[in-house]
Structure formats: structure tokens, C-alpha cells
Amino acid sequence: MTFDTAQILAQTKLFPGLDADQLAAVASKTTFVKLAAGEKFCEEGDNNAKNMFIILTGAADVFKAGAGGDSVKLISLHAREYIGESLLEGLPINATVVASQETTALKLNSEEFKSIITQHPAIAESLLKGLAKELRSFRTVLARAVSLSTSSNTPTPTSTERVVRLAVFDFMKHERVSFERAVADFRASLAHTDTDLKVSYFEVKLDATTVRLAAGCDAVCIFVNDSANAAVLTLLAQQGVRLVALRCAGFDMIDLKAAAALDLQVARVPAYSPYAVAEFAVTLALGLNRKIVTASGRVKSGNFSLAGLVGFDLHGKTVGVIGTGKIGQCFIKIMQGFGCKILCYDAYPSKDVATWENCTYVTLDELYAQSRVISLHAPLLPETKYMINSKSIAKMVKGVLLINTSRGGLVNTQDLIEGLKSGQVGGAGLDVYENEKALYFEDHSDNVMEDDAYARLTTFPNVLVTGHQAFLTEEALDKIGSVTMDNVRQCLFEGKVGKELTNVVL
Ligand code: NAD
């Protein structure tokens, strides 16, 4: 096995800010060790331990003797985490650490380490900073211990069994079959290991009032309308959570800066089915243009008049696509099939798309000025928030059909309502809504609608509103389940972090 010891030391939390020479000095005192599953790195109470370890690959579990003599697992340690720091204080080892699988590590003899510290005060200073930072995350361990000792339904693992816990929030009926199948497949793959995965499902969304449900869990799994803001993430980290697994592509519900500061890994499902969303956007455009909902309602009530049902041929029309990523590209291909001319806008245009037939990148203003239909496929970012507002609407072709299957926040709803009232906007197909969090994915049919803007939107005959269902196909749900479990595997079972995670969100 080849590795750069100094670089590995630089990646641990123990030695922040050391220069290359200082890292080389520490690296020169390390040796490589390999432990089989079940072998101990150190034992609680040992007065004569001499070594510290930094994990390279694999993982180790930290156990402490409980009041009844049982061994209580506190946390698992993974790549770049260290073991045996109490040696620095000359204290007995404070926990037993056992390799939970074949694990490789760098070994650092404490006597030799103390000699380097004496010769290089900068290393001692760096170590102090690293330990001070770690003191804060030690609360994590305490919270875990408290949750384990107070939770009556949490079984105490044996010293060889490693249980990874996942809390799934905002879990909905429609995803039960596919997600539970993915979890069952994943657990089956663990059958011949000494590890297991326990999943708790919660219908409630993750927010400050529900975050305690994740106590004792290694990961939370959330969806588009959960609230993973800085306060919630801080509580998750304190409770021992290390991974936030998003069951979706968009990541506007999570404060990524706060997650990074708290060392929380964030992984997503980047593309569950771009076809599902693109096909739904086309469905909205067709349904709106040909007034399908109105027509269907009419014939059901015996009214066969065609008045007001006139649409237009899509063939030969100009369609504007904002955001030409995975979904935007699928949408373009379908519209090419209708014989449309495509105008594209993207902050990062695709060289590939630029070569497609009948497809041209233009400025936003040009797109607005020429497109009969505009479909939004850009992410919600500070720079895209309310990109569809009174000013941009004024630049559009009169009677434009506007389709939004991306994020509600791209559109200023009040400005859209004005545009619809004036006829400047000829129709809107909206699968997403800026304040959908309070409404979507739940049955509110017994409640009074308190959101006036939403209520107004639904009164227009030329507005089609759906409740964030563009992704909802069997294929997409299967992919969400399998990719989410793969993200869990990579982070919690293989110890991958940051860019090592295939679907990391940074
Ligand atoms: P993607 O990352 O593949 O594509 C997004 C594109 O937007 C990229 O090409 C990117 O360069 C572009 N972009 C970034 N900033 C931009 C800006 N300021 N202006 C214009 N373009 C910009 O993502 P995707 O898989 O195609 O998904 C697009 C969006 O669809 C997601 O952000 C998500 O919000 C939404 N979505 C909705 C549903 C649903 O069910 N309604 C499901 C999945 C995704």
C-alpha cells in the first residue's frame, strides 16, 4: 500500500496548519499497522499503553464499560480519525477501541511523539488547537452515550456487532415500497459481516422541533422540504450524526457552509430520472396549451362546446430552456421531436448542447423576447431566486406559456399573478411553488387555505398546478432508494468523506 504519510497527517483534525517540514517530522515517527476485525487498538483502563493511531482504511468502534458491566458502543471511528489521544496526558486509556473490520492505521509511539513536541513548539501549538476543536465535538460522544443509556428500545450491541443507524424524515406512503426494498437489499448485502443497519422512519419533516428524533443515529435522510439549517445541523452533529443523505437532487434545503463547518458529510441523488421531470414539464406544456383539464371537466358535465379550447401547434415554435443540465437536456430532446426551435440559457453552457440541431445558446433577454414557451430547469440559488419577476415577465412574448418544474423560488408568485391577470403570461404550469413547504406532500383538504397567493393561482383557468410530483415515476423512486443506500454505504461503512463520496454536495 502506498500513501503519503505527511498528507494523511495534514488531513487529520489533530494537526491543523502544520507546514511540510513539521508534518514530515511527525510522519518520520509513524509506522504502518494492519488489524483484523475484532482486534483491539487499545483497552479501557490500560495504564501502560504506548501508541496512538490514525486510521487509514476500515473502521473501529469505541466502547465504554456501562454501569451494569455491559459494553456500550459510543461511536465508530473512520479514515483520518485518531485513537489513543489520552496518552498525551499520561492518563489511562479511557475507552476500548476495536477494529470493526480489517483496518489499517498509522501508529505513533507516544514517547517519540513527546520528543518531537519538545523539539518543535509549533507542532505542540498545532496539537493544542486540534485538541481544542475536538473538545467541542466530544459533546457528540456524550450526547450519544446519553441517548444510548436513556433509550429503552435501543439494544446494546455486543462487542463484535456494529450497528449503523439511519433516521429517515418526511417519509411518505408513495416511497415506502421502493425505499424499503433498497434498505432490505442493502441489509442483505451485510448478511455475512458483523455490521447491521437499523432504519427509523418518521413522517414528520426534519426541523428544529423534530431533530431530537435523530438522537443516536449516524445519518439522517431528508427530502426537499425538510429544514437542515445551521441550528438543526448543529444539533444533528451534537447528537452524533455524520451524514445527511438527501433523497433528491436539489440541495437548497441544507446550509452547506454550516454542514462543512460541522464536518457533516452531505450526499445527494444527483439524477434519479431526468426523463421523469422533463416528461412532466412537457406534460404541463401540452396540458396547458390544449386546455386538457378544462376540456375534460366540460365533457364530464355534458358541455361539448369547443369555445375557449383553442391551442397552438408546438411544431415550428420557439421554446426557451433555462438551465441545460440533465433535465433541461431531456426536455430539449423531446421538444426537438415536436419540431421546435430551442433557445437555451445556462450560466455554464454545455459545449455538447451547443452543437445540437435547432438549439442555440442566447442571452436571457433574447430568450425572453423570442420564446413562445419557457421551461425552467435551473437550480434555486441566490442568483436565480425570483429570476422570473415583473421585469423579466415584461420582456417575454405576450401570452408566453411558463413551465416550472424546478424550484418555486425561481418565480415571484405575486409578479406571475399580475402577469396572468394582464394576459402578458398566457398560461403557467407549476409543479413547484415558492411556499410549498407548508402545503405539499400532505392532505390539507379539510383545512382553510391560508395562502392567498396560492389560492389566487388556482383560480386561473390557464394555470395548471401540481404538488411537486414531476419526479414521481417507478424508475425514479427505485433510483432514489438505491443511490441513497449507496451514499450511506460509502460514508458510514467504507469511511469515505468529502470528494471520496461519489455524490457529495460541497
Ligand atoms: P443539473 O445540475 O443537471 O442542471 C442544472 C443546470 O442549471 C446546470 O446546467 C447549471 O449550469 C445550470 N445553472 C446553474 N446556475 C444557473 C443560473 N444562474 N442560470 C441558469 N442556469 C444555471 O440539475 P437537473 O438534474 O437538471 O435539475 C434541475 C433542477 O430541477 C434541480 O435544481 C431541481 O431543483 C429540480 N428538480 C425538480 C424535481 C421535481 O420533481 N419537480 C425533481 C428533480 C429536480
From TrEMBL:
Alphabetical list of Pfam families matching this protein: 2-Hacid_dh, 2-Hacid_dh_C, cNMP_binding
Domain of life: Eukaryota
Keyword Oxidoreductase in record: yes
CDD domains reported in the protein's UniProt record: CAP_ED (cd00038), LDH_like_2 (cd12183)
GO molecular function terms attached to this record: NAD binding; oxidoreductase activity, acting on the CH-OH group of donors, NAD or NADP as acceptor
Residue span(s) of domain Cyclic nucleotide-binding: 14-134
Keywords annotated in UniProt: NAD, Oxidoreductase
KW Oxidoreductase (keyword) present: yes
Family: Belongs to the D-isomer specific 2-hydroxyacid dehydrogenase family.
This protein's name: Cyclic nucleotide-binding domain-containing protein
Organism in which the protein naturally occurs: Physocladia obscura
Upper taxonomic lineage: Eukaryota, Fungi, Fungi incertae sedis, Chytridiomycota, Chytridiomycota incertae sedis
